[in-house]
Amino acid sequence: MEQTIRKAPLQCRVNGQQVEMLVKPWQTLLEVLRDELRLTGTKEGCSNGNCGACTVIIDGQAVDSCLTLGLEADGHEVTTIEGLANGAELHPVQQAFMENGALQCGFCTPGFIMSTKAFLDKHPKPTETELRTGIAGNLCRCTGYDKIIKAIMSITEK
Amino acid sequence: MRPFAFVSPRTLDEAVQAMAGAGGNARALAGGSDLVDQMRVGRRTPNLVVDIKNIPDMQRLEYIPGEGLYIGAGVSCTRTGEYAPVAEHYPSIKEVCGLIGSTQIQNRASIAGNVCNSAPSGDTIPPLLTYDAKCIVVGPNGRREVPIGEFFAGPGQNVMAADELLLELVVPPPPANSSGRYLRFIPREEMDIAVAGAASMIAVDPASKRCTRARIALASVAPTPVRALDAEAALEGQVLTADVVKAASDLTPNATSPISDVRGSVEYRKELCKVLTQRTLEHCLADLGM
């Protein structure tokens, strides 16, 4: 029973919207989001799971979309940075990053915000150490992290 | 990435058939944190990728008193680490589930995937060695059981045939009055590959205070993860004084054949084995109130 190389159907929800499309099995979820769905808020950094710039949320869990095949999202709920704001109203994590200046070049920011959202949903009152460990899968080459940590801790103190 | 066919079977039988039909060039996909990267850089070029995460048998995570812990091949490290019986009975397994990669990796990667990747540095492997885990392997000729200590054949190599799948790991119940710990050394605080790692598991008879079982396993210091048998023998039957613990830890390099590379030299790795082993043993003794 040899398998044929061909596009396969992907059915999932992306930012609350039902998606049904054909994708190449060798397309990563990152490629499906960016190249097919034109959701370019999710960034490609290292492409090997070190930097977390491509972090999206699948069924409530942060994952590196560069290490996930698009077809693995079949039947699941995917949230990207584009799905966080409620209309013109930013998500509290987005608001906190903005108010605290927790970014410089901004390339890592979507990944950080998605990681942070998933982390805080699970641990609403973390210690700083727990927070630093929880988001250790996201790298930032500009800020030195202090403002990112300050921004996130400001949410937990509210 | 080089094109490949993809299937996501819903039963174990379908998965076995898919693997058998791929002419030896299929690869099972669990969390993908190793495989997807390996395919991206061309280190692995399967014709067929078989996603095993939708197979209920491979999502089993269950502790049965008297039988042990069943960890299906598709169960994520996050789920494994959060399962209360893992923390209660196998503390070092819980520890590695929160140690390997990042949160994002732990949410996808499975212990079985780490085992199948068979890196000498695989963090989940030393604890499995100390608890005498068994690998349940399935293929066209049925099912076989491979002790974890006989599973690895070299860096990135194991005894599974190309058309076989790892169904689950079975970890026997730990001995009474025991504890297990794992420590690794990495230059960073998180997200790195171990320069060396050490897992210890000891059981102590509460009346005589003598060690009734000792297991020590090391990562990143040989072509495969290894047991430190000399060190284990120096602990079993003894009252675990600080001197006995130190002397046994100093025997761990006997089991190793490390390489010098960018992460550390041969001498450094051997020294790390001693220090890490001693600390894990001290932590185990502290867990046991000794």
Instruction: Write down the secondary-structure element order of chain B.
Output: EHEHEEEHHHHHHEEEEEEEEEHHH
Q: Give the overall average pLDDT of chain A.
A: 96
Report, as a whole number of angstroms, the end-to-end distance of chain B.
54 Å
**Rg measurement of chain B, Å:** 19 Å
Biggest beta sheet summary of chain B: 5 strands, antiparallel
Written overview of the protein:
The complex is a heterodimer of chains A (158) and B (290). With 158 residues, chain A is an alpha+beta fold. Chain A folds into 2 domains: 76 residues, Beta-grasp domain (Ubiquitin-like (UB roll), Roll), CATH 3.10.20.30; 65 residues, DNA polymerase, domain 1, CATH 1.10.150. Chain A has a 5-stranded mixed beta sheet, covered by helices on one side. In chain A, strand 1 and strand 2 form a beta hairpin. In chain A, helix 2 crosses helix 5. With 290 residues, chain B is of the alpha+beta class. Chain B has 3 domains: 47 residues, 2-Layer Sandwich (Uridine Diphospho-n-acetylenolpyruvylglucosamine Reductase, domain 2); 116 residues, 2-Layer Sandwich (Uridine Diphospho-n-acetylenolpyruvylglucosamine Reductase, domain 3), CATH 3.30.465.10; 110 residues, Enolase-like, domain 1 (2-Layer Sandwich). In chain B, the strands form 4 sheets. Chain B has a 5-stranded antiparallel beta sheet with strand order 4-5-10-6-7. A 4-stranded antiparallel beta sheet of chain B has the order 11-12-13-14, with helices on both faces. Chain B has a 3-stranded parallel beta sheet with strand order 1-3-2, with helices on one face. In chain B, a hairpin with a 3-residue loop joins strand 4 and strand 5. In chain B, helix 9 packs antiparallel against helix 10. Chain B is globular and about 60 Å long. The mean pLDDT of chain B is 97. Chains A and B meet through strand 4 and helix 3 of A and strand 1, helix 1, helix 2, strand 3 and helix 6 of B.
